[in-house]
Design brief:
The longest helix has 17 residues. This protein is an alpha/beta fold. About 35% of the residues lie in helices and about 25% in strands. It has a seven-stranded parallel β-sheet, sandwiched between helices. Strands 8-12-9-10-11 form a five-stranded antiparallel β-sheet, covered by helices on one side.
């Protein structure tokens, strides 16, 4: 049986970083892992990031496996099996994924005799977890409550800011009293930590929780590169409400001749090097997205 691991977590939690480390772990043990990612927006950037690390990847973009892409999940898994003959599948659902809706894919006649659930790890954004709870608590709580293992990402940023990692752990314990919880920096995410987190998955009951009707996505492809000044201004506008109530912005953009990966979550935005990526579309996810203002900014016509 091919085991399917789920790496869940709210938008911007750090799932793809965790996935890349997990894929390396499996490859070192002689497995043939393949990565499947569900992007709520139109871009398949996470798949490109994983391919840049020389792993096989399949993307499901333009919706969520909970609703608009429900029927596509089993087909994507089947395509991955046919194309790559994996011994292990690592599935990264959209950040607004709910567990109850994954059981339908595993009961599909094409998969039920060849696939089974492996491990389930929910990545929790240690920096922005509290800020995400109020507006998006349904997704955040569902993913934390149903996982046997929780990984607190950005623990190094928490400590650098003088914030208490154990404070996040205490809140998580109120939601899930039995999960294994790990909180380490990316450099400390070694095999021993992974093995602590890779527990047998619980039974996932059937059901359908559809609670993200208010979330929208908007994608734009920059026609002009950013200067450093415009890039900094763009990061500010993504977090100050100018473009709407955004919970996620992601894209690879050219800044002063260099291609950088832009990541923004709730109250947090940053550019970082993007080896192996090419400049492309930028996707915005949130509510009350002001597409006109975004277009104005990218066209260089905005005064804000």
């Amino acid at each position: 049986m091919i085991k399917i691991d789920i790496v869940s977590g709210f938008l911007g939690a750090g799932k793809t970083t965790f996935v890349c480390r997990l894929l390396k772990y499996y490859l070192a043990r002689g497995e043939r892992p393949v990565y499947i990612v569900n992007e709520f927006g139109q871009t398949g950037l996470d798949a490109d990031i994983v391919r840049a690390e020389n792993f096989n990847a399949v993307e499901l973009s333009g919706g969520c496996v909970c609703c608009t892409l429900r029927g596509e999940t089993a087909a994507a898994i089947s395509r991955a099996i046919a194309a790559y003959a994996p011994t292990r599948i690592v599935f990264e659902p959209s950040g607004i994924f709910v567990f109850e809706n994954f059981s339908e894919a595993l009961r599909n006649p094409a998969l039920k005799d060849i696939c089974e659930l492996g491990s389930v790890v929910t990545v929790v954004d240690g920096v922005n977890f509290k800020a995400a709870r109020a507006p998006y608590g349904g997704f955040v709580y569902n993913q934390i409550r149903n996982a046997p293992a929780l990984f607190i990402s950005k623990a190094d940023q928490l400590r650098a800011a003088g914030r208490d990692v154990q404070g996040v752990v205490r809140v998580l314990r109120m939601i899930n009293r039995v999960a294994v919880i790990a909180a380490v920096s990316p450099a400390e995410l070694d095999d021993a930590v992974l093995e602590e987190l890779l527990l047998p998955a619980p039974e996932i009951s059937a059901g359908h929780m559809h609670a993200h009707d208010t979330l929208q996505s908007f994608t734009i492809t920059p026609e002009k590169p950013f200067t450093k000044e415009r890039a900094d201004r763009f990061a500010e506008r993504c977090t100050d409400g100018t473009f709407g109530a955004l919970c996620r912005v992601k894209g690879a953009v050219r800044v002063d001749g260099e291609i950088l990966l832009f990541n923004a979550g709730i109250g947090d935005a940053r550019f970082c090097p993007a080896p192996g990526l090419t400049a492309g579309a930028v996707t915005f996810i949130g509510s009350e997205i002001d597409a006109d203002k975004i277009r104005e900014f990218f066209a260089g016509k905005a005064s804000f």
